Amino acid sequence: MRDAGRDGQDDPLPPGPLVAPHRTERPSHPATSRSLISRSRITDRPAPLLLQGQDYFFRAPATCLDFQERVHGGDLVGDPGGEPVPCVLVLARAADMEMNELSLALAEHGVRMARIDVDRCLDLALTVHVDTPIIELDRWLLRPVLVWRRHFDLTALPVDPRTVAGAYARTQWQALADWMAHRGDWAHVNPARHTARLDRLTQLTDAAAFGLRVPRTAVTTWPGRNRPGGGPCVVKSTGHHLLEPRPGALHGLFPRPLDVNRAGETPEPAPVIVQQYLGADHELRVFVVGERLITFRVRKDDPAQLWVDPEAVTVDRARLPTPLGERLLALTRHWRLQVAAFDLLAVDGEHVFLEVNVNCDWRWFEHRAGTTEVSDAVHAWVAARFEELRYAGQGR
Amino acid sequence: MSLQELAARVRRGEVEDGVLAEYASEYARAHKIYARKKDD
Questions:
Q1: ipTM greater than 0.90, yes or no?
Q2: What are the start and end residues of every segment in region (Disordered) (chain A) (predicted)?
Q3: Distance between A85 CA and the closest CA of chain B, angstroms
């Protein structure tokens, strides 16, 4: 296992081509057309702006650290036999420590949690019944009443998607995971039917509609020609903050100041967000758990410091102004989120919405602030929701 | 032993050998690493 941070020595991100080498055994197109695309459009251009200087690399291990899976797999607890066991079902990846901690916490509450990890599912014995809300997972018969999908990204499936077998495995798991995350007779945390399209740009327009200030923003393939707000700007990923070009190899794709000297006079190969830079006294990270808000003040020197130099960031608990909290809760209800995290800037006494993280991580903030409040709140909320659904007799 | 009792023993650090001790050791190591890491 490697530590997080700057060193990517054993698997550096190649700065060059964005596409894998063409491996077609028998060319189906004239060689000239292919070479035109690969040479003039991809390889002869500088690395995309957001990839330049990004040296964050992390190898996510696929080691199972789920307490309940280890306990049940090791036959350390008795099998009730016969009747399906009501459970919380988590679709994640092995290194999701928030979910590993949830497994232990739910065990303390006596709540069964089962796990399907995208990086450990190739040998999984799984049957999902369509006509009843029952699954068979290994040798256990389970009745999920609450399902939580987070970090179940098919890029982590340990296959080569350029092969037929790899592409096959990926598309089959994608279809199943998507269906399970939408299934109507199970309840869901942050239901995918509402959150699947909650991209960063939709978040901004919705937040503005709810009366929150947002930075001037453009999404563009030509960042060198865009200055929303007219002054300094930040470049951000339109999609995820982490790229996983090979299963388990995670490369950072973090916000950075827009350097017009680097942006150049040619379009980027992919769109990026260019956003007005606002000088802030600090940031707020506000966790929403059910109807509860837990706020942290974050002080950092630049937008990417959270990832590239986290030990230099100061985090402490803070109070949230009541009107702002009410707006965030209203947005949370609008988006049908139960567990999420808002990032806000504090600018001249006003708070500016940056984004909401649906698949949020809280343990780092807790570690830095010396608290377990978010973990405790999440565990209690999931346990309470499970009991509520379990005795309601169905999981809608 | 019930699921709750096993979890409580792990939480209290009362496992010294066997499958649970192995788990607790691996978990503690990962916990230290991931507590210093932000991904979202």
A1: yes
A2: 1-38
A3: 13
